[in-house]
Write a structure and sequence with these properties.
The complex is a heterodimer. By secondary structure, chain A is mainly beta. Chain A is built from no helices and twelve strands. Chain A is 0% helix and 53% strand. Chain A is globular and about 45 Å long. The N and C termini of chain A lie far apart (41 Å). By secondary structure, chain B is mainly beta. Chain B contains no helices and ten strands. In chain B, a hairpin with a 3-residue loop joins strand 4 (31-38) and strand 5 (42-50). Classes of the chains: A mainly beta, B mainly beta. Chains A and B meet through strand 6, strand 10 and strand 11 of A and strand 4, strand 5, strand 8 and strand 9 of B.
Amino acid sequence: AQKVTQAQTEISVVEKEDVTLDCVYETRDTTYYLFWYKQPPSGELVFLIRRNSFDEQNEISGRYSWNFQKSTSSFNFTITASQVVDSAVYFCALSEGRRSQGNLIFGKGTKLSVKP
Amino acid sequence: GAGVSQSPSNKVTEKGKDVELRCDPISGHTALYWYRQSLGQGLEFLIYFQGNSAPDKSGLPSDRFSAERTGGSVSTLTIQRTQQEDSAVYLCASSLNAGQGNYGYTFGSGTRLTVV
């Protein structure tokens, strides 16, 4: 069965600290896609990254970086030098490639609070 | 349109009344998805459309929920005889196509439904 687990419900850090949000997924498909979304207090889901199962290269985008490890079925997200504007709920999600519908399976989300 | 548009943005309704939620996807996107975000429950997949067809309705929480899509564009999610547990944010997303590869998703801002 497909499943996404975000074990951290809430994380609180002080500005400029680094923080890592964990994501563990389960799927039987060999082709799948992993996503991270940010949901600020305004409620809109903001796309951050999409990664397919054949690309295990880590990715860095400014202060954001992602560590994809198929061996541990994890797709962790690190924010370096966190800022107050990073405060939001972050969702990890999975889409299986061979299924016909392509819907996203979301984790429960991690609420990140960055304090000044 | 430029983005996914949902209306209304907020809806307060009395228990037992019917409501209709509308989603206008990005022009040219053939796949459309409905999700529900309840407080503390994460994002739950409800139904998807490929064109006007909804192959899998098993995600709908009860037979009070139905959805349709006409002209391969606008979709309406209808909840009949609303209950308090239906209170949630209903999110719509569209994608270029469903299945066979993954083209990413664009989310609307959601409709916040409150049943009193």
